[in-house]
Automatic annotation (TrEMBL):
Keyword Glycoprotein: no
Organism name: Pseudodonghicola flavimaris
Pfam family for this entry, one: OmpA
Protein name: OmpA family protein
Keywords of this entry: Cell outer membrane, Membrane, Signal
Main location per the UniProt record: membrane
Amino acid sequence: MKLLKTTTVAAVSAALLLGACSDSQLLSNSDPNANTKSAAIMGGLLGAGIGAVSNSSHKTTAVLGGAAVGALAGAAIGQSLDRQAAELRQQLANDGITVVNTGDQLVLTLPTDITFATDSFTVRPALRADLNTVSQHLLRYPDMMVQVIGHTDSDGDAAYNVGLSQRRASAVANILQANGVPYTRLTTIGRGEEVPIASNLTAEGKARNRRVEIVMIPTK
């Protein structure tokens, strides 16, 4: 009976938190703190789950305490990412670079057309100042690990595209490293044409798919 009560408390807590996730007012795109709130909610869910499976003799207290601790940790991460996204948008000079806060990481997208010449993996001089800005940002936030991921459209040989996307990711990562970001924080990945974000049937879609993403992942 005690186990049933504990499971019920966890389920009710999760349901309430999930209900909050779907509240259009809470997570509205116009809310500047939407990602902070979302991270707090998800942190609360995780904390409640940890409390529910703990060996504590006071399961209900463990569930609620876990939810509170998880919510605080999630909110802190979300708040930090909101602040960092705002800083980067203000500091980056090229309007073609986008910054997206997913709630648990930041994704900077560098369109290939402004970053490289056709079939080249040499970064255009005009982008180096912005990559220096990104490097300085990463040095201010040393707890962020970084994935640099290259993508192409579907034109050409798939294997060649993987190699080109890897070389482009490495070229961007090399500039970050040259500006002081430790190599141990950087991972480079070439995805080729595997992960399109638009249709490869149109010129506009292909242009969107040709990109390098700098993904910043908090470790604390």
